[in-house]
Amino acid sequence: MNSISLNKSILHQKRQELDFLHHFHGLGYDLIDLSAIEQFDWTKLSEDDLGLMNDRHKWQHEGSLYALRSDWTNAIVRYRQKYQLHSETIAYSGPVYTQSSEKHQYGLETFTGDIQKQMAVLKQMVAYIKESLDLPLSVAVISHNTLLKNLLSEEDLSDELTRKYIKERNRDALKAKLGAEHPIIALMAQPAAKQSSYVKEHMPHLKRHIEEMTQWEAILNEENITYVYGDMLALPSQSYYKGISIQLYAEDTVEPIASGGQYSSPSNAFGIGLNI
Length: 276
Description:
- The chain is of the alpha+beta class.
- Helices cover 43% and strands 25% of the residues.
- It is built from eleven helices and eleven strands.
- A hairpin with a 4-residue loop joins strand 5 (89-97) and strand 6 (102-110).
């Protein structure tokens, strides 16, 4: 890449970032900008902090633990609790660093248990992707991060091999590991399109979760996304997700362009991040 095209690329990225912040500030979002270096107290690490720690670049200095920001939602939740920030909706932009990658993210968070307000945030992000970024969305995947918690023991859910087999949809390997009579084996045998009806019929204690997924599917169908479907066997992409989680894919992409979900902060909240 020559210097002229590199300059244009940098300017385009900075304009796009400012456009995102201006756009959502105009919709009533408060803006937040945090240091990329976070300081932790080992004795006060939350379960979510611990869940993210293995993927962080971290070091110790004079008795304190420091890490590069690996996740915006976790950083914002910690900041809100520390400084008693009362903003209901927040927009942000900036880098995140993991052990294997660096990404630039734009994102939205809403700190409310009102499902209609959470859905409004999702719709605003979808509209921004389609209209401001001019990216048609071809697939939306919806899951509920308590489904597997109800089907698997805590030990099985945390087992790396079990998680690997679920991610790969490797039914034979799971059958050998969990037993042929395990309910997840029967669920995995169903075609994807019939899994939700199977859960409603054979696992009535999970019916409420399926109905919640159906609500969110309807919202995304209204946004004219080409293919929207529920995934009964999705593993949480982040440890802090407690309910609905969503992944959005643009045309011809393997990795989601945006992902998010419901979590506790400690009350109900919803966030979605866009990877640039």
